[in-house]
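Appendix B, example 12.
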Amino acid sequence: MIKAEPKTILNFLANYYDSLKDIFDLQKEFGHIRKERLQAIFDDRNEHILQQLIDYKIIRKLGDDYEFRDTYFKLFEFILNEFRPLLPETIQKYERSIGTLFKKIRDGIHGDKLILGQRINDLHGEVKEFSEAVEKNTIRLLAETRELKSNVDKLDYKEKVRKASFWIDYYITPLNNILDINHSESITNKLFDISNYVNIRRLNFDDEMLRLQFEKMYVFLVQTNDDLLKQAKLLTNELLPLIERIRTESIILTGWIEFLKAPYRAPLPKIFKVERQYPYSNDMYLNAKEYVQQFGKDETIILEDPKASSDKWVFNKDLYKEKMLQQLPLESFFDWCGLTLKSEYENIETDKLFALTALLFEDGISIEVDTNKERSLIKTSQMVLRVPKIKINRYGIS
C-alpha cells in the first residue's frame, strides 16, 4: 500500500524528472538497474531519494539490484514516445483472446446478463490494448527506419542491408499481414465480423443496459477501424517503401564498392550509347523565335502616377459626437444629421449619413423610437431614404 498522497507522488516525479529519466534509460538498455549505476546517478546530482522511490512503488528490489515497476515504465515510454517494438507474434495473441471472448458472447447472448455485460467490457479492453500495441509498434518502427535512413549510428552498407532486411522480415511484413482486412486470419478481419454482430445487437436487444453496452462497443469498433486503417496506410505507403529503398540502395552501393576494389576481376559489360530524343522538332525553337519577331513591336510606354484623391472624407467621430451632445435633447436624430451635413457640404451624401448613424450606439445617451408617427424622407445625392423619428436624450433625461 502506498502511504503518500497522489499529489505528493506527482510532485516527486516532476522535481526529480532528470534522475528518473536516467533510471528509465538504464532499465530500457539493460532490463534492470544495477545498484552501482543507481548510486552513481544519486551521487552525480547529490540526491538521496532511494527510499522514496521504493515507498512510492516506482522501483522495486530485484536481488541486490532494482527494476522499474511496469506502470511507471509505461508512463515514461508514453511521455518520451520511446516504445519497445513488439514482435508480431506477441501482438497476434490478441487474435486468440479477442476471438475467445467474441465466441463466448455469441454463445451466451441469452444467458446471464451480468456475465454477458462483463464479457463485453473485457472485449472492449482487449481491442483497446491491441489498437494501442499496433500504434506503439508503428511509431517505433518509423523512428527506427528514419534513424537507419539517416545512418545515425554510422553503419556500413552491409550492416544497413542486414538491419533493413531484419526489420522487414521480422516486424513490418508480419505486422502488415495482421492489419490486412482481406487476410482471413488477420485480427482486423475478425474485428470486422465483431462490428457487424454488435451493430445488429445494438439495434434490437431487449435489455436496455446491454443494448447501450453494444452501442458503446460499436462506436468504439468504428473508431478503432479508422485508427488501424491509418496505421496500415502508414506501413504500406511510407514505412515499407522507405526501408525497401534503404535495402535496395545499399545493395547497389555495396556491389559498386566491391567492383571498385578489384575492377579487373570480371569483364566489363557493354556500355550503352546515350542518345537524347525530344517529343518535338529540332527546329521548333527557331520557328517560335521567328514567329515572335514577326509580330513583336517596340512601343513607347509612359507611366504616370495616379492622382491621389484629395477630397476623400474621413469620419471624425469625436467631433460629431461633441456636436450632438451639445444640442441634446434632439427630437429627430436624422433631421439633425441632415441639417449638420447640409451646413458643412452642398449635398447630403449617403455614406456620410450612414457614418453618422454610428453615434446612436455611443454611451451616455438614450434613444426612443416613435413608431406612431410616419417616417420622414431624407434626400441624399444618390437616393431618397425613409427614416424613423428617433429622439435622443442624455442618460434618458431631457
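The radius of gyration is 40 Å. DSSP finds 14 helices and six strands in the chain.
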